[in-house]
Amino acid sequence: MSSRQEEKEARRRERQAQQAEAEKAAANARRMRLVGGVVVAVLAVGGIGAAVVAGGGGDDGPAPDGGSDLPKASIPAQRITDLEEAAKAAGCELKEQLPSEGNDHVEGQVTSYKTNPPTSGPHNITPAQDGEYSVGNEPEKENWVHTLEHGRILFQFAPGTSTSDQAKLSALFNEDFSGSNGYHQLVFQNNTEMPFKFAAVAWTNYVGCPGPLNSETLDTFRAFRAKYVDKGPELVP
Predict the structure, then answer these.
(1) Which of 32, 53, 74 is a domain's end point?
(2) Is the pTM of this model over 0.70?
(3) How many domains does the chain have?
(4) Which of 29, 57, 89, 124 could cross-link with 216 by S-S, CB 3.0 to 4.6 Å?
């Protein structure tokens, strides 16, 4: 192996070690927050009551909150399974196999992404967690770009999107897919001022749609999800 190849391999191993350490620390922080919710047994006259004290703890970034109890929505079953056909029917912009912008771990904000929404590039060492995020609780772009590297599918909606449309994306998220609900997916409000009303994003791929969030758009997102889930360069369960 050449010295250049050895150096490249060493950098890759270092990135993986840093990532594993960061994810371990994030998991420990989440466990500590759960432990921080202390249940105090209170002896009361005529019986025993319980008082629950909400715990604090460290902060490793926003966590999914189920979309803050969005109303239930019913969405039509899939009709179009071909991604290109669905995107054309919905009037969406499909961009596939875009050049990778790298995967370096950085601190602070990144302003150099070449696509909007971003599909690859420098990112925070801590990936955003799978799940649904309510408006105002969405992860920073540097965290959600990291999830793309792990093969996740990101469904994003523009600021000002109605609660009913958010509920439709929640229903899409909770469909049975790959044997479970919400498998390797995130849903949140876009925070990069993307030029679309709705978008689905994967590593070096995206489809951006103008709306409405009708059956054709939902089929586009289903086909995109089926094609690109778990296709990132570093698949993490």
Answers:
(1) 53
(2) yes
(3) 2
(4) 89
Report CA-CA distances (Å) from 216 to 46, 54, 171, 210: 61, 44, 15, 12
**Residue 40 clears pLDDT 70, i.e. is over it:** no
User: Is the torsion defined by CA of 25, 28, 33, 34 positive or negative?
Assistant: positive
Asked if the model's pLDDT at residue 35 lies above 50, the reply is no
pLDDT-derived band at 68 (thresholds 50, 70, 90) equals confident
What number of residues does the chain have?
237
Same domain, 96 and 28: no
Cβ 170 vs Cβ 73: under 8 Å: yes
Q: Residue 143 in contact with residue 124, Cβ under 8 Å?
A: yes
Tokens at 180, concatenated: 């479970």
Q: Which residue range(s) make up the domain with 29?
A: 3-53
**Does 98 share its domain with 137?**
yes
Q: Which tokens is 134 given? A: 């309510």
Task: Tell me the C-alpha to C-alpha distance, in Å, between residue 214 and each of 98, 121, 151, 160.
Answer: 27, 31, 26, 17
Contact between 132 and 62 under an 8 Å Cβ cutoff? The reply is no
Q: Residue 82: what pLDDT?
A: 98
Q: How confident is the model at residue 236, as a pLDDT?
A: 84
Query: What is the pairing mode between strands 180-181 and 131-132?
Result: unpaired
pLDDT by residue (tens digit) across 203-228?
999 999 999 999 999 999 999 999 99
- Give 108-130 as a DSSP string: S-----SSSS--SS-B-SSPPPS
Structural domain contains residue 72: no
Q: What is the mean pLDDT of residues 99-120?
A: 95
* 135 lies in the same domain as 209: yes
pLDDT number for residue 159: 98
